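Service request form, structural biology core

Requester: graduate student, group of Dr. S.
Request type: structure prediction, single chain
Budget code: on file
Notes: please return the result as structure tokens.

Sequence provided:
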Amino acid sequence: MDKYFSGEKLYGDDFDLKEIVAWFDDEKEGYAELGAKVKKNYNYSYHALNDICGYKYLKENSLKKVLGLGSAYGDELKPILDRTQEVSIVEPSGAFENDSINGVPCNYVMPEITGKMPFEDDSFDLITSFGVLHHIPNVSYVLSEMARCLSPEGTVLIREPITSMGDWRNSRPGLTKRERGIPSEVFDEILNNGGLKIVKKTYCMFPPLSILSKKAGIVPYNSKFIVYMDLLLSRFFSKNYKYHAAKSIDKIRPTSVFYVLKKEV
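Core staff response, request fulfilled:
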């Protein structure tokens, strides 16, 4: 396992079909079972972060067709719905289904276990994946499918953890059974090999600041002020980045990355 915990390779990315099926069964309802399926208690807490690191880089023109991976109730898409005609959400749990989001028609699709997406080539003007890919084993293949489904002028926005999130072989409070972060350099390589060009890469989600914000009663990633502080600290401490934190000092680093991506044409 050393090659995985060192960040040299991504655990699960080379699994065979049998292993992928077992992973899918473990993760299908994982996020929902953590409490997200109780809608009255659900509050989306990343709007400011998504806006500053992602949505602000989108052109002002129409985004006719939008795809969200694992977007739950679709809250992450609300900031751009005023220029959207149709939304599709690939979501393994049936707990989140809606016919529309803020009046925009929404089609929920159950993912295929292999990661194959049931959409035509060049279908979507925007694809989002916010905290989803790290729940999936064969990340390389799923990203290649996202590239295939993206229109030539479209944009992909991805935000994912880039740390191990602890030893995934053991139970971890507040986490699903299989989730693990995607090592930063491995992530870059997967994207470049999968047909997606990195337009902007931003380190984010600096744990000490998040902890202090929550103690002060602030939802950190819904506050633009906190987000800008977070990005500054994440950039400053990015040289301390290690995939798997073996010591306390190793935890003083950004834990996530935000990508703005275009299709390689």
